[in-house]
From TrEMBL, chain A:
CDD domains: M56_BlaR1_MecR1_like. The lineage of its organism: Bacteria, Bacillati, Actinomycetota, Actinomycetes, Streptosporangiales. It comes from Thermobifida fusca TM51. It comes from the Bacteria. GO terms for biological process: proteolysis. This is Peptidase M48 domain-containing protein. InterPro entries: Beta-lactam_resp_regulator, Peptidase_M48.
From TrEMBL, chain B:
It comes from Thermobifida fusca TM51. Belongs to the BlaI transcriptional regulatory family. This is Transcriptional regulator. InterPro entries: BlaI_family (IPR005650), WH-like_DNA-bd_sf (IPR036388), WH_DNA-bd_sf (IPR036390). One of its GO terms (biological process) is negative regulation of DNA-templated transcription.
Amino acid sequence: MVVAALLTLIAGGCLLAAHHLLRAQWPSRGPHVAVVAWQALGLAWGISTIGALLAFGLAPYGQGILLGLAALAEDAAANGLQLGVLAEGHFAATRVAAIVAAVGLTTVLLWGLAVSFIQVVRTRRRHRALLALVARDHPEIPGARVLDHPAAAAYCLPGVLNPQIVISAGALEVLDRRELAAVLAHEHAHLRQRHDLVLLPFSSLKRAFPKIRLMERCYNAVALLIEMCADDHARRYHSPRELATALVRFGAAGKAAIPLGAMAVVPNENQPEVLARVSRLLNPVKLSRRATAAVLSGSASLMAVTLTLWHLPL
Amino acid sequence: MKTRLGDLERAVMDVLWEQTEPMTVREVGRALADRDLAHTTVMTVLDRLAKKGVVRRHRDGRAWRYRPAASRETYISELMLDALGQTGDRDAALAAFVRSMSGQEAEVLRRLLLENHGEHGESDRSRM
């Protein structure tokens, strides 16, 4: 029962920490570190919630979660669904409900991940096929495909075999050569660091719990951090001001020729995303070494404690 | 081989997009005469395009006639909407440089850049 209580505390703590992280200022100073923190929080939340339910449900076996699961299987094999040991203890019905809830939550999370993955693969396949038919190469920008569309857009299509960077004619129109280079470097960073894979678990969480607004806000926060990571990468080779100018130009030109009805779907946390990116490009402040170390070691210990609790027979 | 097929698919679509009338395999082959393609090759390519759903076909007497399922502009718009995350499922499929911005936001940004120009503009230039 001690383990169940501790895991419940951790799960609650993760939610509190997520709330804090959504409002905190430091993530924009150290986006890479913040992404690690988000990953640790998400993973620890799932593992501790499932663990808390299991620890409570399996308490009568007195062997902790992992061995408790084995004991439950043995019990079920010996006594059928009547479950000898579990049925004799206190709160038998509640314990069974907790185990069922744990299994349910695990299924929902894994299912969400699988569905997200399949959907992403499908979207990309169609996108890639259409791109092959309608995009053209540009002699001056090797490695990128050009779409003849007046709105400004630049994006990447991740993939193992054939990752691609696409830029619209509208974007070429508004960017000068150096700004374009900065934008391309930004997109290359997405592809090389596989940011799409970083985002995938969060988008599947959002899909699994569409009614919970916190999930969507977390997803948006991680999506923004990933953009900042790519900005930081591009800044190593290009002036931040060029990247910032490019962002502003996109903002001015982006709305041309996009159907108005679709514009309503804009993610909006209290602070506009692009504004946050531009201001940190213009006034860069790096997260201190100590803060970085604190966040990283905090994330590591959170994971270690959560996983250890799964093994303790308390 | 794969790139060659992709290249052909593209060329065939370009032909179909240029014509207003649905075309037979023979007509498509004739339009691509400079490539000197076998009849079966053109048929294979059209078949693949039909399977991908970008080409529709119907019987006309003894021959099939092919036409694009949608205009080139429609597909480009679809890709753009995908990329700008406005089709509803922007989920990690693509990462756009900027998703979208309100006019007001753009205005704020422009001002921010202008103000900043005085302070940091010089040092940024010298770093190039």
